[in-house]
Design a protein that fits this description.
globular; alpha+beta
Length: about 120
């Protein structure tokens, strides 16, 4: 299982762009499905959040190898999808994520650093 990911989050749909948001969302899911079939990413999981008074409405968590995800983030096609998404939803963002074993290594390093400041 991959220990690196991309967290792609978004807020509310821009009013008047609801229909376009569905179109772009479906195109995006097809794109990630293709990337998974090609082996560029390991998996992806789209999530819608229930209304909670915050700015985050949903996200997609993409799992994959660090090198492949780094290349994906700067690819022309990923950039184009990101720009399109940013025009139809508020608060669109892409953030690197540590998962599984990488998360455990980060926590070990964090614990070590706490000890250094004690």
């Amino acid at each position: 299982m991959a220990d690196t990911g991309l967290f792609i989050g978004w807020g509310a749909v821009v009013r008047g762009r609801e229909a376009k948001s569905l179109e772009v969302f479906n195109e995006t899911l097809a794109y990630y499905g293709r990337l998974q079939e090609e082996g560029t990413i390991e998996s992806f999981e789209p999530v819608f959040l229930e209304p909670h008074g915050g700015d985050l409405s949903g996200f997609i968590l993409i799992r994959g190898e660090a090198e492949k995800l780094a290349a994906l983030r700067v690819s022309e096609e990923f950039t184009q999808f990101s720009i399109r998404a940013g025009l139809i939803v508020d608060g669109f963002g892409v953030v690197g994520a540590d998962l599984a074993g990488r998360l455990q290594r980060q926590m070990a390093f964090y614990t070590e650093q706490i000890g250094a400041f004690a």
